[in-house]
Amino acid sequence: MLKNKVALVTGAAQGIGLAISEEFAVQGADVILSDNNPQVLDTAKNLNQKYPGKITGKILDIMDVNSIRVGLEQAVSEFGKLNYAINNAGGGVLKPFAQLTDSDFDTTINLDLRGTFLCMREEIKLFLKQGFGSIVNTGALGSIYNPGGMGAYNAAKNGIMGMTQAAAVDYADKNIRINCVAPGLTKTALNEGEFLEKVLPTVPMKRAATPAEIAKVFVFIASQASFMTGQTILSDGGVSVGLK
Predict the structure, then answer these.
(1) Residue 241 vs residue 116, higher pLDDT
(2) 240 within some domain
(3) Most buried residue among 64, 94, 115, 129 by CB atoms closer than 10 A?
(4) CB 181, CB 157: distance < 8 Å
(5) Where are the membrane-spanning stretches (predicted)?
(6) Per residue in 106-149, pLDDT tens?
(7) Using the 8-state DSSP alphabet, how is residue 161 labeled?
(8) Which residues contact 108 (CB under 8 A, 6 or more apart)?
(9) Nearest-angstrom CA–CA distance, 128 and 123
(10) Helix-strand-coil percent breakdown of the chain, rounded to 5?
């Protein structure tokens, strides 16, 4: 159980981010759900009624360093500390490579890679002051194995894997762990329909993950994998090891 532990999750209004937040709550942690979507405030209220820990929502823009700094400062002011930071917010444009515009590329890189960088940098500064902390970033199976149309997205997610490794080495001796989870095909609102049907036959387990399944991996790595840092963990139903 994670009673008296505090977790902050970005991109928590829905999908995998919401599932990660709920898994922390199930295990007794206090949780801050953050998102640039105001829906996150109502989502947090609903969770707060279901679980024993204190659960709050916060509007946070990962593209704005001041928003990140204020969010972290408020989290520590309210809870006294931050144990876990889950950098899950992201998105981007999926198109065949030559069809990507400059704007498509910049939008995807900024939202996924730069947003994660800004969050990581400010979280590490906080964790250095505390003397402890654990970060888990959201990567993607598409960085390693993809069905096409992911040029900008792959560039961003591979960058996140690289930043995870670099920062983990920088702060491994400071009681700060930094890892990454790369989910495979996951049944969320963003993946429903044609994309899900196209990719599903390539999954050896012949099904998509649920957000709750992926969330358990994030929470375990953040809170229990105490001798793991700098790693990207795939949770992909077997896609990365073979086709069936």
Answers:
(1) 116
(2) no
(3) 115
(4) no
(5) none
(6) 999 999 999 999 999 999 999 999 999 999 999 999 877 777 77
(7) H
(8) 91, 92, 93, 152, 153, 155, 156
(9) 9
(10) 50, 15, 35
3-state secondary structure of 150: strand
Token pair of 173 as six digits: 């001796």
Query: Is-catalytic flag, 153?
Result: yes
Binned at pLDDT 50, 70 and 90, residue 191 comes out as low
Assess if residue 115 is contained within a domain: yes
Instruction: Please tell me the predicted confidence (pLDDT) of residue 244.
Output: 65
| DSSP label of 81 | -
Cβ neighbours of residue 184 under 8 Å, at least 6 residues apart? Answer: 141, 203, 208, 209, 234, 235, 236, 237, 239, 240
Average pLDDT over residues 25-46: 98
What CATH number did the domain enclosing 157 receive?
Answer: 3.40.50.720
Residue 29, both tokens: 């942690």
Of 51, 84, 153, 171, the active-site residue reads: 153
Range of the domain at 161: 6-184+217-235
- Domain-located, residue 222: yes
Residue at 58 is within a domain: yes
- Structurally, the chain folds into a number of domains equal to 1
Q: Encoding tokens for residue 71? A: 């969010």
Percent of the chain with pLDDT over 70: 97
